[in-house]
Write a structure and sequence with these properties.
The structure is a homodimer. Chain A has eight helices and eleven strands. The first copy, chain A, has helices spanning 2-6, 93-102, 104-130, 133-148, 164-171, 175-187, 203-208, 213-226, and strands spanning 16-20, 25-27, 35-41, 44-49, 55-61, 66-68, 79-82, 86-92, 156-159, 192-194, 197-200. In chain A, β4 and β5 form a beta hairpin. The radius of gyration of chain A is 18 Å and the shape is globular. The structure holds a DNA duplex.
DNA sequence: CGTGTTGTTGAACTGTCTCAAGGACGGTGG
DNA sequence: CCACCGTCCTTGAGACAGTTCAACAACACG
C-alpha cells in the first residue's frame, strides 16, 4: 500500500521490522518515551485484558496505520495481536522525533495517520455505544471492507481475519449473539462467508444497514489522499 | 491547576481564550490543519450526533486536557459543550507546531497530555463495552472525582456537572436506567447527591465497585507528575 | 407561586446473554 | 485416503439486564 510505503524510514537499521505470524502477540510495554508502530501489511488487533477476566479489542489496525505505545491504556495487559500475517515497523519515539525534524513531510504523514485513527476510534465507540448488534456488525463489515478491499463492480470481497471471539470482543457482543447475527445477515443475502472470505454482492445495500458507513467511507478516502 | 498553567502560551494574542458559560456549545469544524484546544478551567464534553438521532458524549475534558480538532470524527456534528463554566485556549495547529520548535518542553507537555487523554479514551471504551451499568457509573464517578476533587479524609466530594442525559449519553445507558442506578448507589450509602454535588464518604469502597478505578488513578497521577 | 424542565419510579417488553448440545472444519496419524 | 481429534462455529430455550412508556415528584426560574 502506497501510504505505508511513504511512512517507511529512509535509513535502514533505524528501527526493527517485525514479521508476525497469524495470532502472534506483541506485548506493548511502557518504555521511556515509547515506541511507534507502523503497520506495513496485514491486520493487527489492540487487546486489553481486565482483572475481571474480560477481554476487549480496542481497535483494529490496517496497513498505513500508526500506533503509539504511549497512547496505550495504563492497563498492564495491552497487546498487539496479528489477526493475519503482518509486517510492522517499530521505531523508538525519539527516533521518530528526529526524523520529523529532518523531514517535515514524514512528521506530517505520521500526524495525519494518527488523526485518522483517532477519528476511527471515535466512530467505533459511537457504534458500540448507541447502535444495535446488527448495526455494529454491519459497521464492522463496512470498515473491514473499506480497508482490505477495492470495489469490484457492484460488490466487494475481503478476508475476515478475526475469529468470532475477536469480532465479539471488538463489537461488545458475545460470540453466540454475533453468530446469530451473521446467520441473519447471510440469510438476508447481504453477505456470504466461505472459508473466512466474505463476499458482499451489493455494497450499497450493506452500507444502508450500517449507520457508520458514510463517515467511515469519508475517513478511508482521506487516508488515501493524505498518505 | 499547575498543569494547565504550564501549557499556556507565552506570547499574548497568539490564540483565543474562550470563556464559556455552562451549556455553551462550540462547534468543531475541520479547518486546514485544525485547532488545538487547551482546557484551562471547567469541564467540557465532546458530543457527536448521528443521522439516526442518537447522541453520544465521546469523552469528557478536564483542566489540563488538550483536544485536537483534527482528531474529531468526520461526522459533521462534533461539538464541544461546556458542562460547567469553562475557560479554553484555542490555538491554530500551525502555531502550536511553531511554539514546539521554539520550546521543546511545550511540545512535550502537549504530547504527554494527548497520550494520557488517549489512554483515558481506551479505558472508557472498555468500561462501556464490557461492564454492567452499575460498574460504568462507578467508573464515571471515580473518573470525575479524580479530576475534580482532592482526597478529604476518607472520602471525597465534587460537582456533578453533567445532567442525567449527558451522563447517560456518555455511559451508553438511558437516563431512566441511570437514575435507577443512582438510587441504588445512594441507598447503598456509597454516594449522596445534593444540588449537583456528590459526596463519597468512603472513597476506597467506591473504588472497589469500579473496575477501572486502579488504571484511572494511575493515569491521574501521571498527569500531575508530567504536567 | 405557577410553569417548564429535569429527575424518579413502576410495569411491561425486548435484545442480548447464558448454557448446553450438536455440527463443521482443519490438521494429524494411521 | 480416511478416521480421528480438537477447535471453532451454530442454534435453541430460558434467564436477565436494560429499555420503553407513562405518570408523578422535585427543582429552578421568572
Amino acid at each position: 500500500m502506497q501510504h505505508a510505503k511513504s511512512l517507511r524510514p529512509t535509513e535502514p537499521g533505524s528501527g526493527v521490522r517485525l514479521s508476525l505470524n497469524r495470532q502472534q502477540r506483541v506485548p506493548v510495554v511502557p518504555d521511556g518515551m515509547g515506541h511507534v508502530y507502523i503497520v506495513e501489511t496485514g491486520v493487527l488487533m489492540v487487546e486489553v485484558l481486565l482483572q475481571t477476566g474480560h477481554r476487549q479489542i480496542l481497535e483494529i489496525l490496517y496497513p498505513g496505520d500508526v500506533f503509539l505505545s504511549r497512547d496505550a491504556p495504563i492497563l498492564p495487559s495491552t497487546t498487539l495481536i496479528a489477526a493475519s500475517a503482518a509486517a510492522v515497523q517499530r521505531l523508538r519515539a525519539e527516533l521518530v522525533d528526529a526524523m520529523t525534524q529532518a523531514d517535515s513531510e514524514f512528521g506530517r504523514s505520521i500526524a495525519s495517520a494518527l488523526a485518522l485513527r483517532s477519528a476511527r476510534r471515535s466512530l467505533h465507540l459511537t457504534s458500540v455505544s448507541v447502535l444495535s448488534g446488527e448495526e455494529r456488525l454491519a459497521d464492522f463489515l463496512v470498515e473491514t471492507a473499506l480497508f482490505l478491499s477495492k470495489p469490484a463492480g457492484r460488490g466487494r470481497s475481503f478476508e475476515l481475519n478475526l475469529t468470532r471471539q475477536d469480532m465479539a470482543d471488538y463489537l461488545a457482543l458475545n460470540p453466540d449473539t454475533l453468530s446469530r447475527m451473521f446467520s441473519r445477515l447471510k440469510s438476508s443475502g447481504l453477505v456470504s462467508v466461505t472459508r473466512g472470505r466474505a463476499v458482499v454482492p451489493d455494497w450499497d445495500a450493506l452500507c444502508r444497514t450500517s449507520p457508520m458507513a458514510a463517515p467511515l467511507t469519508e475517513l478511508r478516502q482521506r487516508l488515501s489522499v493524505t498518505g
